[in-house]
Amino acid sequence: MTGTAIEVVGLTKRYGVVEAVRGIDFTVGRGEMFGFLGPNGAGKSTTIKILCTLADPTSGSATVAGYDVVHDRAQVRRSIGLVFQEPTLDAYLTAEQNLAFHGELYGVPRGVLKDRISGALEVVGLIDRRHDKVQTFSGGMKRRLEIGRGLLHSPHVLFLDEPTIGLDPVTRASIWEYVAQLRASQDITVFVTTHYMDEAEHCDRIAIMNAGEIAVVDTPEALRSGIGKDRVQFRTDDDERAIAQLRSTFGLEAEMHNAAVTVRVTDGALFVPKLFQQLGVGITTVTVTRPSLDDVFVAHTGSTISDAEKPTAGIR
User: Fold this and answer.
1) Where are the domains of the chain?
2) What is the CATH number of domain 225-294?
3) pTM summary value
4) What is the pLDDT along the chain (316 residues), one digit of tens a residue?
5) In CATH, which of 3.40.50.2020, 3.40.50.300, 2.60.120.430, 3.30.450.20 is domain 4-218?
6) Based on CB atoms within 10 Å of each CB, which residue in 39, 244, 280, 309 is the most buried?
7) What string of H, E and C letters represents the secondary structure of the chain?
């Protein structure tokens, strides 16, 4: 799939004297899964509101599925699906009734609505629970139903705001499996906010926003590579001698960290065999740690993802 699903150029948003978004630019390709991360007050929620036509920009422009978010609001809203952070299902209605209500709101023709509902339930694996009330569903099933609801009107872009918040690790993994299947079977672009770094790894590209500006946009691999070297930690029979040998043999400066000799190298996987062959000191344990997306987040925002405010409860 080729083309542009979202294009943002010089986008700004001011609330009085506060500039929440400061002239940002980015694009999201059609069919791409795009991750959006940022700490408290970064401006990411404001940006999403603008993209979903829930707030007007002060200046600049943004298009979603080829439609201007200010001048083509109705077309944008018909082109997007939303899955909020907080549950928005009616627990006293069945899965089918929840989707039917959504279809009526979005103007899905009644002649095709029944088939659309069946198709959406099939996609998220809930076709056999269509007549069950939502109050009987697990957290993961509710999330899947909300994703199915977001797909009901065949959107071009699906916004997922913290789609797995509050779910256990197994259910979180199953949700991402459904999202992967969705991308494989549907012509759809996914724009996701998350504070789970392992979930950000699912994205084709990630944008980190800080202080109203886009700090960096790239693939997870490129972001990690740009942060620094791998960390190699190992325990030996003689740590002082090992540190001296690292300096004389490899020209590397090492230090003790967590009772282990610690050194940073460009490629830890290639370095470890050389370490065993040339160090001349008995090694008892060794670990290699690559730069993580947490490291990337800290480098560009000055805070850890756990310190950052979780994305807002729903796109308001």
Assistant:
1) 4-218, 225-294
2) 3.30.70
3) 0.75
4) 458 999 999 999 999 999 999 999 999 999 999 999 888 788 888 999 999 999 999 999 999 999 999 999 999 999 998 888 778 899 999 999 999 999 998 888 888 999 999 988 988 889 999 999 999 999 889 988 998 898 888 889 999 888 887 777 887 887 888 788 878 887 899 999 887 778 888 899 999 999 999 999 999 888 887 777 888 999 998 999 999 999 999 999 998 988 899 988 888 889 999 999 999 999 999 999 887 777 777 777 776 655 554 443 333 3
5) 3.40.50.300
6) 39
7) CCCEEEEEEEEEEEECCEEEEEEEEEEEECCCEEEEECCCCCCHHHHHHHHCCCCCCCEEEEEECCEECCCCHHHHHHHEEEECCCCCCCCCCEHHHHHHHHHHHCCCCHHHHHHHHHHHHHHCCCHHHCCCEHHHCCHHHHHHHHHHHHHCCCCCEEEEECCCCCCCHHHHHHHHHHHHHHHHHCCCEEEEECCCHHHHCCCCEEEEEECCEEEEEECHHHHHHHHCCEEEEEEECCHHHHHHHHHHHHCCCCEEECCEEEEEECCHHHHHHHHHHHCCCCEEEEEEECCCHHHHHHHHHCCCCCCCCCCCCCCC
